[in-house]
Amino acid sequence: MLSYIARRLALMVPTLFGILLISFVIVQFAPGGPVERVISQLQNPNSGASDRVGGGSGGDAGTQSADSSYRGAQGLDPAFIKELEKQFGFDKPAPERFWKMLGDYVRFDFGRSYFRDAPVLQLIKEKLPVSISLGLWMTLLSYAISIPLGIRKAVKDGSRFDTWTSAVVIVGYAIPGFLFAILLIVLFAGGSFWQVFPLRGLYSDNFSELSFFGKIADYLWHIALPVTAMALGAFATSTLLTKNSFLDEIRKQYVLTARMKGLSERGVLYGHVFRNAMLIVIAGFPGAFVHALFAGSLLIETIFSLDGLGLLSFEAIVNRDYPVVFANLYIFSLIGLVVHLITDLTYTWVDPRIDFETRET
Length: 361
Known about the structure:
Number of helices: 14
CATH topology of the largest domain: MetI-like fold
Shape: globular
Order of helices and strands: HHHHHHHHHHHHHH
Helix content: 55-70%
Distance between the termini: 12 Å
CATH superfamily of the largest domain: MetI-like
Strand content: under 5%
Number of strands: 0
Structural class: mainly alpha
Radius of gyration: 25 Å
């Protein structure tokens, strides 16, 4: 097992290198950039461009440096444009910027945001609790509902209960999470019906004045609608996964043998089937959490005005804030690779019979 872990860790290095290299090359050909954005803002203050220009060239990455061919550069002093290029680190050739970025990232030095005037790592730390709250509660809620429901559906396979719950699950999976979030707002957040839940944020304005249990209640009150909206699709997927996993095990020979020995259905289900059937469900928990944390929260964060990693990444892309973009890409990719390894190790923990030593990496 140790040799397998070592091989997987070693493969992470070229994988991360390839991800960053391909992304960096694509960005070189992307239109616009932070320099052109600043020039556009200077010549048209009402253009909507960010008016916060951060200093520092840490985490140098971005498009080709600006020149006088920029449409917004007309009428500006070329020396001023060169100074902007130097400020953003675009006065150096692209290969040099890329290798500097790699060296900085190895030390987890992501530089400063171009337009927020703050260290990138600090921004990520500030937004991380919001995304963790959404991802963790969404994953726990979907598993808490889908596992018992999936087991029940497997036991009652083909019954009326299985049929109508399957219809509900399929409809839930087909509804986009952001559309369900809007529906929840209309119904329960003062849209056209009831004002039951708050519309935005994770805390009330008087959160610091509340008691300990009052803070918990206030937090759960604010997180209820976003988590419910996010859990809809994941709930459907994990329910069908649980059902199919249990059905596969129930139809195996060892289950028939256990029944012939006189064991009750409950004893067969939870004494023999449960451990084997739950293998794939439990092992998928780390991946489900990471997916919810980094991929599933962008629209929900935007709709409910939750300042998390999803919203930070989106705004960084729109504003061409490349240090934030590449830092998020690097961290998300690294966490994804580590979680994939943890998932494999979870398989061996749930079922020691699985041996990855003989598996080709």
